Amino acid sequence: MIWYTLITRLLLPFALIRLWWRSRHHPDYAPRWAERLGYGPAIEGGPIWVHAVSVGETRAAAPLIRALLEEHPQIPLLITTTTLTGAAQVAMLFGDSVVHRFAPFDLPGAVTRFLDATRPRVAIILETEIWPRLFMTLRARDIPLFLANVRLSERSYLRYRRVAGPIAKILGIPAVIAAQSPADAMRLRALGAPPRRVHVTGNMKFELSPTAGLREAAQALRLVFGERPVWVAASTHQGEEEIILGAYAVLSRGFPDLLLVLVPRHPERFESVGKLVRARGMTVVERSSGLPVTMGTQVLLGDTMGELMLFFAAADCAFIGGSLIATGGHNPIEALALGIPVVFGPHMFNFAEIARLTLAAGAGIQVADEDGLIAALRTYLGDAAARDAASRAGESLVRAHQGALGRTLSLLEPLLSCSIPPLADS
What we know:
Elements lengths: L1 H24 L22 E4 L3 H17 L5 E5 L2 H11 L4 E4 L5 H11 L3 E5 L5 H9 L4 E6 L3 H8 L2 H8 L4 E4 L2 H9 L7 E3 L11 H14 L4 E7 L4 H14 L4 E6 L5 H10 L4 E3 L12 E3 L6 H6 L3 E4 L12 H5 L4 E3 L7 H10 L2 E3 L3 H13 L1 H17 L3 H9 L14
Parallel strand pairs: 1-2, 1-4, 2-3, 4-5, 5-6, 6-7, 8-9, 8-12, 9-11, 10-11, 12-13, 13-14
Helix pairs in contact: 2-3, 4-5, 10-15
């Protein structure tokens, strides 16, 4: 812990410079950057604290958060994120029904100030977020820690094995570790997590039930698009847009009215991706502009927040980004739940189990490169029978793997009766 604290202190100046930079470019963030140092007004009532790093984790936590709001309306709910996009997702999904803070840096002072102000009765941390200082401080204050929806890839497991001793001590702190799959649970136990505390609950990202309002909005958007084939390239990263636009150029020869809805993963890249599309001589409309999408529009740039499921629901098929480059891929479940066939590249190691299930069910196609992407999209865009079969398979897959929320809540419920922790010096 001494070495860890020393390293984090050495990195603090660089983190502060990054905070300053973000504050300059995101005015809404400027008044709140001190939250990363643990500052913030007190929260009364001993809140349930849920930490979800960014957009994906927030969406995964959404069913759990809704259930907690419904079943424990008398207990305040605190949601923390580390990214601006995660904060925007919290605001969009829950508004004023929850309190949002940016999570503190894992430094003694920041963690202490944060816990003094919030005094949570339980801490719920989504997926694989391991913060040694925070975990140890929670234990010292007798605040139960629940790790929910945990996934641990083989790559992460091998990395953690290099520091097996310290990791084993840290994994001995949580009261409950709810793993997504038996493979995740096995790796966690191999790293030293107490076997009796590790439970396989399934993946809460399957807990999706598209609303009628979403379906209606998608139908309206599809009417705007017109009678034409539509595919979404979702959560793309630098290095993938060039491949996607190259695939579009080939596909448009057979589908001259083809519309591409291009949604970069990171908002700071919206402008540069728009310039890239225009440099290719393609007609593009930014979603945020409010300009109409006409039959002459080739690319709709999804530069807004919170509309990805709407784009999925209005499309014929989808490419899942972060998979043609070695990023690890992104979650295809939202598209599958809407009955949208998916295509993804070879690098899905962050979602290996979901990718395997998708392929086994016949709900998607994995490709190696641009040629494979073109062939897969040509299949789904041009073959209604293949598209319909994949659509039904995706919806069935999602329904078959639901239930993680109920299992998670049953493990969490005993911890919610814990009393509000006292201040550290009381």
